[in-house]
Amino acid sequence: MLLRPEEKAWREERQALIRRCEESEKRPDFIDEEKIRAVLREKANPGRTEVEEVLAKAGELRGLTLEEAAVIVNIRDPELWEAVFAAALWIKQRVYGNRIVLFAPLYISSPCVNSCLYCGFRHGNTAVTRRTLSDEELEREVRVLTAQGHKRLLVVYGEHPASDIHFMCRTITRIYETRDGRGEIRRVNVNAPPLTVEEYRRLKEVGIGTFQVFQETYHRETYRRVHPPHTLKGSYRWRLFALHRAQEAGIDDVAIGVLFGLYDWRFEVLGLICHALDLEKEFGVGPHTISFPRLEPALGTPFATRSPYRVSDADFKKVVAVLRCAVPYTGMILTCRERPDFRRELLRLGVSQTDAGSRIAVGGYSELEREHIPDREQFRLNDTRSLEEFIFELCSDGYLPSFCTSCYRAARTGCGFMELAKKGLIKNFCIPNAVLTFKEYLLDYAAPRTRAAGERVIAEYMARYREEQPGGAGRLKALLRRVEAGERDLRF
Ligand code: SAM
Ligand code: SF4
């Protein structure tokens, strides 16, 4: 299917802009494929002592070098893998405590001029109906989400003239303005195509939280194969430095990710680590979060089920645990792509954020009772449980659900956030803010069984907090009383 003349003209204009920016990009590529392959070869078959030394360093929250990470991705002994899983959980608890931050994805537009082989929204996939939300439809979606208790969104856009930078700024502003009683969105994170420095500056002005760009694969040949070269996404380098440009524009919470299943997972894990190290080297700030979406079936998209590199559950657990050990300060995002039972397992491997109650069809929240609308979705979700149901499970498993958005609003972003996270001090904010925002949820939105389970969780945390931080506990108790009396949005 050919692009319409106005889509073609927009793509050509954008392509020329990308070429100009690429020509002025002087940074050397930080993905050295030969080096990654060599490190993986050199560290094949690591011994127990070597693994234990690497895990001991990970336990000091110092992060891992490429060589150290290669030692653990190459483990063969199942017993040693159990040690890695235990280390990952320990590190997550040490940095963030037992809280899990919750958010919802909000798909705003699906038309796209790109042709990514794995994606249901790719141009030319006639099995999927395209839609861009009108202002009224957007508002309706936001109201459904805030009525469930959500405070944090991840908005998602296709790459298309109908969802350009003007559209992004307008829709994000509209989301922040949509208020309904106590319902409000306090942080909008963005997953969108790479932008120019100037465009990022405009997004910063409308007050976005994190900007995410997933490289999808760090392996150049695979990148070329799944992103046709004549498309905008076809430029590897434009995407590779997308978040460096965001940092230049002052967006200092940036997020990286790989679509696992396109190429060898061990190579991709090391690619993510190279990316994190390069951001840290240049800006003093690594990725605020790392995402690890796994390839899922999508309508009219045979590649999604045929890729020879699809990652098994057993290997996917390793991906999550190694990343947590290697980049201890980062937020690790699990999504509803994964099945409920498996999500429960993955949560124990160092995950710190996840979505819940998600619908990914454009306009899907306004038709909440339909779990799937395949002809409007980018791929298929495996967990469509409600936010309430998921929170109940979290409480039963002893986690502290959190709707916190306070760091970004208290200007604890970029270096300020990293300093605290690296020293394991950020949880001194995370835990009390989780308690305060979860309390709001229990009072304003929870059904009786979840309220009862949630109050038990809060009581346990308060008791523990009193022992660990007697000073903070008094302040938290006073703030909790104010929330009970009707005040909202109080924070540490
Ligand atoms: N269009 C923007 C872009 O490509 O950068 C926004 C991203 S896209 C809407 C969100 C992410 O979904 C992609 O970056 C990709 O990692 C993931 N994705 C695409 N197709 C998928 C599939 N079949 N299964 C799982 N995740 C998929
Ligand atoms: Fe478009 Fe993004 Fe899908 Fe590629 S992954 S076809 S860029 S929506």
Describe this structure in words.
It contains 21 helices and 9 strands. It has about 500 residues and is α/β, with parallel strands linked by helices. It is globular and about 60 Å long. It has an 8-stranded parallel β-barrel with strand order 1-2-3-4-5-6-7-8, surrounded by 7 helices. S-adenosylmethionine binds near residues 156 and 259.
What descriptors fit this protein?
single chain, 492 residues, alpha/beta, TIM Barrel, 2 domains, eight-stranded parallel barrel, 21 helices, 9 strands, binds S-adenosylmethionine, binds iron/sulfur cluster
How many structural units, i.e. domains? 2
Instruction: Assign the CATH superfamily of the largest domain.
Output: Aldolase class I
Mean pLDDT reading: 95
Q: How far is it from the N-terminal to the C-terminal residue, by CA?
A: 53 Å
Within the largest sheet, what's the order of strands?
1-2-3-4-5-6-7-8
| CATH class descriptor name of the largest domain | Alpha Beta
Helix/strand-derived category reads alpha/beta
Main sheet characteristics: 8 strands, parallel, barrel
| Helix content, binned percent | 40-55%
The radius of gyration over CA amounts to 22 Å
The hetero molecules present are: S-adenosylmethionine, iron/sulfur cluster
Low confidence ranges: none
- Identify the quaternary structure here: single chain
CATH topology of the largest domain: TIM Barrel
